[in-house]
Amino acid sequence: MKLQLTEIPHTEIVHYARGGDASSNEPELLVTSHSRTVAVAGKEKRYSFALPAKGCRFLFSGMRLARRAMRLDKCNVMPVDPRGSALIAIRQGMVYRVECDSDPVVAPALRLRQCRNILHQSMAIAPSGNVYFGEYGANPNRAAVPVYRSADAGRSWQVAYEFPAKSAKHVHCCAWDPYEEKLWVTSGDAEGECRILCANESFSEIESIGRGEQQFRSCHFLFRDDAVFWIMDSPLETSHLIRLDRRTRRIERLRPFPGPVWYVKDLTDGWCLAATAHEPGPGVQTRFAHLFASRNPADWIEIARYEKDAWPAVLFKAGVIGFADGPQTSGCFFLFGEALRGMDGKAFRGRLHDDGSES
Question: The CATH number of the domain where 60 resides is what?
Answer without folding.
Answer: 2.120.10
